[in-house]
Specification:
Two copies of one chain form a homodimer.
Chain A: H1 3-11, H2 18-29, H3 35-48, H4 52-63, E1 79-83, H5 91-101, E2 106-109, H6 120-125, H7 136-146, E3 148-151, H8 159-170, H9 177-189, E4 195-202, H10 211-227, E5 231-238, E6 246-247, H11 249-262, H12 267-283, H13 290-302, H14 305-316, H15 321-325, E7 335-340, E8 345-350, H16 352-364, E9 378-381, E10 388-389, E11 394-400, H17 408-415, E12 416-419, E13 428-432
Parallel strand pairs in A: 1-4, 2-3, 4-5
Antiparallel strand pairs in A: 5-13, 6-9, 7-11, 8-10, 8-12, 9-11
Helix pairs in contact in A: 1-3, 2-4, 4-9, 4-10, 5-11, 5-12, 5-14, 9-10, 12-13, 16-17
């Protein structure tokens, strides 16, 4: 095979064969193809797309570019959830121990934050000592004992994705649905799962700005999963405003600990977490009725089972339990500033992207992947969409260390729209199942 | 500026500014941008195109990436012809000395052959000792004395083109009209010419297979020329069958010497050469009437003026004049094989591409640019489109050294179509002038 023939075929809008895709990826990972040929192919894929068969083959080739697991290592089945990311999206931190408490195996690998969205690994690392990199033996032993581990990817796990993602980032080929879908699914399938629930977000704080694009991405991913024998379902969910109340690393851990301890918290976050966990239980066949699954989840949150699982996981991964038991010990910013409403009415809009950027500016996010993070900074949302507000009411409390606070009041005011009637509270906008 | 923003802009189908194009090319030539970012941009240009302003800016940026000439060094004006390449296209070898004999300055830079088409430099080098690389001083002195030089590009001449062409070759981005047009025009304008006649070929042996594509390429090139103050005109010409009788390096030199000596030869080659030269004279304002220009050209061929200019150029560039005066001394293949017609009728079709590939297979062409060339091999066309043939008549004489002769008879028979009525003799199919 010749690389130029394969590039030209995709350039001309033709479908590549599984063999062509496998050859190209294998050669690239083996450093037998230069970055510039992959860059040309990526741009051709960006502009000409890929059909379902090509996407499955691409995922498969990426998945087999390094080490990966099969469900057998977890006793035959395992489940996970993946979110396309948003502002204040801390669902995984509650969902993983909750699903394990409900009897699922949850070998969750996560990523780091970039831009206006935070990363699960970074949030966990705001708990002192928490290790997101475990040896293979540690990881499998923990999965065996607790049924849950939350870790980062080791470099030999799906190396094609790492290499391709870095190249996409510098060649303007990131926002391609087939490439995003293959990237996500290769890593998730490589975890060795039998079921996967996808939370595909849409709205100002999400990667997919339109519901239509979110639906296309969801469809691409569930079909790739089905082609690999993984039971998949995607929920399309709103990311108009931040999820829950906290945005920022320690603050988000704090909010999660509250929910894990009490079973109570901001409804949008709690309901979505319960719904996604119940979908995992459903896909894994634990319950044939979603309502029953939801009830079980709420019970495991209320009775402290999920919380105990979270504590055991933190201890197993080296985290400082004192921070969990006394969240006031978590890293915190030195200053707090309450931003108040300049007018009365109802919150019509609360721009997730603006809040995400604000927190990034405070030092609570990365512009490039090598930036360090200030775990303590963030925003606590006091009023959300639909809430009634009186002039002078607090809108948000900003936790900061003096950095990135220029024009804070104006920026918060711009993120909120307060009007006469409450804005719509959007939550779950749709569900996507495999097409075959 | 950021490379990814520029790539994304073109990817999304927007027009790049002159500043963006200049920055990208300059950074690339300075090795401040990696090949993979240029590869992504090239694929985006391939698929999204470039408008006239972008093409002129790209040409300009490439042109200024290294050393180039202005017409002033040739006393204020100079003219050239460029052909997009075909099989048996030896026009330059006759045209350059002819135009110089007619009083024009012709600072012609040419390229090497690749694939099924031959290169002017390679053909000249079949004359022992002929130097296609001259020092700047030698080149300017020869231009001053003879008004003509036929040379290759020095590495510091339009270096952006060399670097981009190599990358296009391995990223499936060669066949893009804006990229082809900018590549050709940057090199031609950089010669320091005031007028340029373009011979854009179409048909089986040409790069542009359809007349429509040829017209688009021609339009792109003449507009780029006009934007740079170069008087330009393109002729669209047929490349269905090889031009003239010879295909192969020495054989083509031989055919040219015959025409230069006698003013007589195969009509398609002779007429096209005269036409293109007359167009150069017209653009340079030597004659306001094309017919007069043609007459002058025929006269300079008949009276030996063009031939004498050719001899002086060969001598000036170190070539062995004995080979010119006695062409039997030119490199020749050891064996000749006459392939005869298996049926009677008229030649309806003679596939230029098939003949070009046949000669390449004999050793008379390159698959990759580092291949060496067997100057003596080639094909002498005995019957051309429109000719009457009787069974047993010679179709072609193959000059070979035993290499690449498998299935010779069948391949020649396949290249010819002999039927009851003669096929159309197509020559000049159209003319394209700048749109503004």
């Amino acid at each position: 095979m010749r690389a130029t023939d394969i590039i030209a075929k995709k350039r001309d809008g033709k479908a590549l064969s599984g063999g062509e895709i496998r050859w190209f990826i294998n050669q690239y990972v083996a450093e037998a193809l230069p970055d510039y040929q992959m860059a040309a192919l990526l741009m051709a894929v960006f502009l000409k797309g890929m059909n379902g068969g090509e996407q499955a083959a691409l995922t498969d080739a990426m998945l087999h570019s390094g080490r990966s697991y099969k469900p057998e290592v977890f006793g035959g089945s395992a489940a996970d959830k993946h979110s396309t990311g948003g502002v204040g999206d801390k669902v995984s931190l509650i969902l993983a121990p909750l699903a394990a408490a409900a009897g699922l195996k949850v070998p969750m690998t996560s990523g780091r934050g970039l831009g206006h969205t935070g990363g699960t690994l970074d949030k966990l690392e705001s708990i002192s000592g928490f290790r997101t990199r475990l040896s293979d033996e540690e990881f499998l032993a923990q999965m065996d004992e607790l049924g849950v581990a939350m870790i980062g990817q080791s470099p030999d796990f799906v190396p094609a994705d790492m290499k391709m993602y870095r190249l996409r980032d510098v060649t303007a080929t990131v926002e391609s649905i087939p490439l995003i879908a293959a990237s996500i699914m290769s890593k998730k399938i490589g975890e060795g799962i039998s079921s996967l629930v996808l939370d595909v977000k849409t709205g100002s704080g999400a990667f997919m700005k339109s519901l239509e694009d979110a639906r296309r991405l969801a469809g691409a991913m569930v079909d790739i999963g089905a082609a690999h024998g993984v039971r998949c379902r995607a929920l399309l969910t709103a990311m108009d405003q931040p999820l829950g109340r906290a945005v920022g690393h320690s603050l988000e851990i704090l909010e999660c600990i509250e929910i894990l301890r009490t079973g109570e918290g901001m409804a949008d976050l709690l309901d979505l977490t319960v719904e996604l966990t119940a979908q995992m239980l459903f896909l894994e066949g634990k319950y044939t009725d979603l309502g029953q699954g939801r009830e079980v989840c709420r019970g495991l949150l209320s009775d402290g089972s999920a919380y105990q699982r979270f504590r055991r996981m933190v201890r197993a991964q080296g985290g400082d339990l004192a921070m969990v038991d006394e969240p006031s010990r978590l890293p915190r910013a030195e200053r707090r500033e309450v931003i108040r409403a300049g007018t009365s009415g109802f919150v019509r809009r609360l721009d997730a992207l603006a809040i995400g950027k604000l927190v990034q500016g405070l030092g609570g996010g990365r512009a490039v992947i090598t930036d360090s993070i200030d775990y303590g900074v963030g925003v606590w949302i006091e009023r959300k969409i639909g809430d009634r507000v009186k002039e002078g009411d607090p809108l948000v409390t900003v936790h900061h260390n003096g950095r990135g606070v220029e024009g804070l009041e104006r920026r918060v005011a711009d993120a909120y729209e307060i009007g006469e009637a409450p804005g719509p509270r959007r939550a779950i906008l749709g569900q996507v199942d495999p097409s075959t």
